[in-house]
Structures are given as C-alpha cells and as structure tokens.
C-alpha cells in the first residue's frame, strides 16, 4: 500500500508540476469546470431528442441513469467510505488552479464522464471514441489542476465504466424479459382463440 501511495504522489507531481505550461494552465481550468459544459450538453441532448431516433433516445435515457447512479454512489457512499483528502490539503507545493471541496477518492468527474461514455460507445461506436477522448482529458485536468490524485481519476474511470456496463446490462435484461413475456402472452392468446374457435365449431356441428 505504501508503494502505491508513493507512486500516486509521484505521478501527481509529474502531472501537476513537470507537465505544467501556459497553454495547459489556461485550458485545463476551463475544461475541468463542469459549468462550462452545460450549454454544449444541453445542445447535444436537444439534437439527440430531435434527430437521434429511438436508439438515440434510449442511449440518452441510459446515460442519464448511469450518471445519476454513479454520482450518487460516489458522493454518498464511496467518498465517505475512503475519506481521502485532496492533494492541495495534504501535500506541499501543489499548483491548485481551481477550487474543490469534499473528499478526493474517487473522482466524480471521472465517474460521470466514463459512465456516460460507456453508454455512448455501446450505442454509437464512432462517436463514442470522441467522447472517450473528452472524458480522458477531463480526468487528466482534475490532476493537472491539483484537485485529484491520478489514482482518484483512474478509480473513477473504472467505477464509472462499470456503472455504465451495469445500466446497459440491466436494460437489456429487462428488454429480453419484456419480449419473452409478450411472446408468452401472444401464445396464450393464440391458444385461447383456438379453443374458442373449436368450441364454436363443436356447437355449430351439434
């Protein structure tokens, strides 16, 4: 555990210090601030609702479900469970470029980003790669701006992806069950109809 902790800190300083430059100092705070993504997200949702068809609306619904589930579990369960303080609270010389509060592990940004990306990639492979790159950049920005350790965002990415997979699995299983039940009902209706027909024929012959 001590080795992993030291590795995490070393990687953090590498990203937060060794990779620092003026371009990233400007871009990463913009990228990492979720409020800056509200307008683009609203535009994407509107486009999906208008032109996405049934497949797009299903993907959108599952994305929202995965985001809600991942965010709630991370914020309400995992962060209070691990109680890890943020780098700028315990390390020296951290270049903190944005404000952040609460516990550090895992990263909500990474959880949310990769939960959504998993669903998008499942339904739209070509578009999914672009969103995967975006989620990775956002996760990187959390470390660069000094508010998360690398393992925070890696764990968040893993948990977020698992959340997306779980939501897709549950939806597919529910869909299969509904289709099975519909076929059973159709078969039952056929049997009832055939018995009624047979009964009417017997009465007619008699």
Give a written overview of the molecule.
The chain is mainly α. Helices cover 82% and strands 0% of the residues. It starts with a helix and ends with a helix. The mean pLDDT is 89.
Structure in a nutshell:
With 206 residues, the protein is mainly α. The protein has helices spanning 2-18, 22-32, 38-51, 53-82, 87-90, 108-123, 125-144, 150-205.
Pick out its properties.
8 helices; 206 residues; elongated; mainly alpha
Spatial gap, N to C terminus: 86 Å
Shape: elongated
Instruction: Give unreliable regions as ranges.
Output: none
Q: How much strand?
A: under 5%
What is the number of beta strands?
Answer: 0
Order of helices and strands: HHHHHHHH
Number of helices: 8
Helix and strand content put the structural class at mainly alpha
Q: So what's the oligomer here? A: single chain
Largest sheet: none
Helix content: over 70%
Overall mean pLDDT stands at 89
Radius of gyration: 25 Å
């Amino acid at each position: 555990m001590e080795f992993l902790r030291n590795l995490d800190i070393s990687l953090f300083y590498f990203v937060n210090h060794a990779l620092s430059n003026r371009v990233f100092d400007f871009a990463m705070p913009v990228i990492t601030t979720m409020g800056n993504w509200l307008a683009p997200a609203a535009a994407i949702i509107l486009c999906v609702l208008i032109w996405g068809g049934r497949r797009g609306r299903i993907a959108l619904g599952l994305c929202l479900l995965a985001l809600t589930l991942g965010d709630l579990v991370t914020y309400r369960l995992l962060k209070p469970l691990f109680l890890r303080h943020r780098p700028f609270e315990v390390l020296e010389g951290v270049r903190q470029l944005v404000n952040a509060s609460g516990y550090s592990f895992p990263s909500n940004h990474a959880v949310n980003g990769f939960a959504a990306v998993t669903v998008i990639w499942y339904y739209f492979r070509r578009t999914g790669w672009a969103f995967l790159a975006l989620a990775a950049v956002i996760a990187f920005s959390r470390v660069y701006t000094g508010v998360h350790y690398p393992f925070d965002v890696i764990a968040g990415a893993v948990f977020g992806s698992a959340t997306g997979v779980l939501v897709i699995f549950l939806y597919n299983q529910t869909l299969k069950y509904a289709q099975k039940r519909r076929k059973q009902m159709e078969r039952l209706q056929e049997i009832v109809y055939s018995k009624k027909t047979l009964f009417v024929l017997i009465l007619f012959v008699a």
